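I am still getting used to backbone structure tokens and would like to learn alongside you. Label the sequence line and the structure token line clearly, so we can match residues to local backbone shapes. Go ahead whenever you are ready, and we will take it from there:
>
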Amino acid sequence: IQEFLVYYQPVVDAVTKKCTSCEALVRWDSKSLGFMGPSDFVPLAEYLGLITSIGDYVLEEACSQCRYWNEHGYPDFHVNVNLSVVQLLQKDVVKNIEKILLKTGVNPKNIILEITESFAINDMNRVLEIIKGLKKLGPRIALDDFGTGYSSLSHIRELPIDIIKIDRCFVIDLGKDDYAETFVRMVAELADTIGVRMCVEGVEYDEQLQILKDMKKVQYIQGYYYDKPLTEEAFEKKYL
């Protein structure tokens, strides 16, 4: 597990342009296979049943790091952590996450747990139970990859989520495709109506950023336009 590293990508406030949080992202620096991003090893880790151990490790590292930053001058800074579908399907997922939060001593309100939209719509009753259990522990919940799971928009209203993260596939086409722009605008309006904040990821160009700013209902922006995922040292030096 020591070969797995946690990188951090800034999440920027659309109005103040300040980095208010970051997303923890796992990388594998394998002695035999070299440096790999998640798309190269996560499917294999899921197949081999190792993804829960990796996910727990990333969550613990991210919580410890968040606590350190909170205690060293940034009390409101928060960290987003992805939960894999396999992690979320564990019977004791809520207890397990509670253990990690208690072990690291982080303020749970500064942790945002990201779950994918495709998981959220598979079994609504079970998902509702899990999300409610997680929220009782203190973290906020973000619905990740939104727009790729073909969920009914009415589902969003049923889920006690705090943030919607629009999938990058819609951002790529901003400025080139009316559908992508209309979709992002519609979700931003919907999120605003139900009191949910909105984050757009995968932003790379000025044109995309300008379109999002003009919408005025997008709170957070993430993507290579601002920065790629960085090591903890590099992130801290640049943003904190």
Summary: The first strand starts at residue 4 and ends at 13. The mean pLDDT is 92. Residues 128 and 159 are 6 Å apart (CA to CA).
